[in-house]
Design brief:
This protein has about 350 residues and is an alpha+beta fold. The chain contains eight helices and nine strands.
């Protein structure tokens, strides 16, 4: 196992809230990018260190602090101290592989979701844990690696387009969640195209090589279901939350995001059913093909059974066999065998056995 990968085994026996990064170290240094805005002003800069975050608590503007890289424990600890984050929250942020969920801590709300992405032209889907902290100071977003699906939101903030510049941090949190959920549709549509292609291949030309693709897609569906299914609970929790951090005007948008999560789950379940049906069709096709082969072999074997009996009788080499002295005995045996095969063949055809 590489040295830059930590597992949960390293945390065994340690007190709750102990900060040990669990997961692959994907960046060398933690980067803190701050976007500060309101309806009239906007600024964007990279903070030199975590200590520079203290000034955010004295400003009335909306702050979006994006932290890229989770392996610098001192930085995470400083951010937690500045914004009053519970040690268990920091532990969950540093421990990747968390189940998507939402937790209301009163002064702030902690949200964990999975962002899905592809690497280049690879078909394999990867996931990255995104942790969001919604508080009166703004929004903190924690990412494992540089790069995300939030660039359209950044562009709208810079260009003062839409509602985001005039809304509060709760609306920004919704937009970040909505961007993650919308990206699910892109991933699922590509997977759905592969599922439909498999279904067509199974129906038209069932080939043994298809079974590998079916099993690979079924593994992908298990991975996607594990990552996406709990997101509905996350959005539902935000809707049901009585926190003053979420204003009523944002709840309308959260309900729309909830509907999107339902559509995502429906797509996953539909594709799972389609794959199961494709696998059943493939197995049925293979079974039918095997039955056809066995039927042909059985018919051929049946045709040769009486012939084997006849040649077996005349191959016993007894001295006193009447037919051996006949002038046309050899031709007669061939004639009997030919008539026997023809009669049996005609009978099989009438019975539609082949």
């Amino acid at each position: 196992m590489p040295n830059n990968v930590h597992t949960r085994r390293a945390k065994a026996g340690l007190p709750p809230g102990t900060l040990i990064p669990v997961g692959e170290k994907r960046v060398d240094h933690t980067t803190l990018t701050l976007i500060e805005y309101n309806a009239d002003t906007f600024s964007e800069r990279v903070l030199p260190n975590a200590e520079a975050c203290r000034e955010l608590k004295n400003s009335s503007a909306v702050h979006w602090l994006n932290i890229e890289g989770l392996h610098e424990i001192d930085t995470l600890q400083q951010i937690g101290d500045i914004f009053g984050l519970h040690p268990l929250v920091l532990e969950d942020i540093a421990t990747t592989g968390q189940r998507p969920r939402m937790e209301d801590y009163g002064d702030y709300i902690h949200v964990v979701v999975k962002m899905l992405y592809r690497r280049g032209d690879e078909r394999q889907t990867f996931s990255e844990q995104i942790s969001l902290i919604l508080g009166p100071f703004g929004v903190l977003s924690f990412q494992e690696v540089k790069g995300d699906v939030f660039d359209p939101i950044r562009e709208r903030i810079r260009a003062a387009k839409g509602r985001v510049r005039g809304a509060g941090p709760d609306y920004l949190t919704y937009r970040l969640l909505d961007a993650v959920i919308d990206n699910y549709f892109i991933i699922l549509e590509d997977v759905n195209d592969r599922v439909e292609l498999i279904q067509e291949q199974v129906s038209d030309h069932p080939d043994p090589a298809i079974i590998h693709d079916i099993h690979q897609l079924k593994r992908d569906m298990i991975f996607l279901r594990k990552a996406l299914w709990p997101v509905r609970e996350v959005v539902s929790g935000l809707l049901k939350s009585e926190s003053t951090l979420i204003v009523p005007s944002t709840e309308i948008f959260l309900r729309d995001a909830y509907e999107h999560t339902v559509q995502v789950i429906d797509m996953i379940e539909t594709m799972r059913d389609t794959l199961s049906t494709a696998l059943d069709i493939y197995l049925s096709s293979m079974s039918n093909r095997m039955n056809e082969i066995m039927r042909v072999l059985t018919v051929m074997s049946t045709l040769f059974i009486p012939l084997t009996f006849i040649v077996g009788v005349y191959g016993m080499n007894f001295e006193h066999m009447p037919e051996l002295s006949l002038r046309y005995g050899y031709a007669g045996v061939w004639a009997v065998m030919g008539v026997t095969v023809f009669a049996m063949f005609a009978y099989f055809r009438r019975q539609k056995w082949f």
